Amino acid sequence: MGLEFGGGGLIGGIIGFAAKKVAKLIAVIIGIELALFKFLETRGILQVNWDAIGGAAQNATGTAGNAASAQPPSWVTSLLSALPVSAGFTAGFLVGFKKG
């Protein structure tokens, strides 16, 4: 059981660290893209419908909220059945995400 918990923790830490790095990269790319849109709009090269972008963002947030309140998929149930590995993975993921 200790090996399962430790192995899950190690894998979770690596994935959590990588997930935070990817999330930061995506945030930077989106920020650069929006800044580029605004720059091109001020130059008259591009016309951006900011209301549509805001509506799409709100729609995506609502979809994510609905998915979070639904029943978990079968793979989540099977993951929870392996509790020692899952607990180690979760702890490792959180530590890795915090360190990343």
TrEMBL record:
<dbReference type="GO" id="GO:0016020">
    <property type="term" value="C:membrane"/>
</dbReference>
<keyword id="KW-1133">Transmembrane helix</keyword>
<keyword id="KW-0472">Membrane</keyword>
<protein>
    <recommendedName>
        <fullName>FUN14 family protein</fullName>
    </recommendedName>
</protein>
<feature type="transmembrane region" description="Helical">
    <location>
        <begin position="75"/>
        <end position="97"/>
    </location>
</feature>
<dbReference type="Pfam" id="PF04930">
    <property type="entry name" value="FUN14"/>
</dbReference>
<dbReference type="InterPro" id="IPR007014">
    <property type="entry name" value="FUN14"/>
</dbReference>
<comment type="similarity">
    <text>Belongs to the FUN14 family.</text>
</comment>
<keyword id="KW-0812">Transmembrane</keyword>
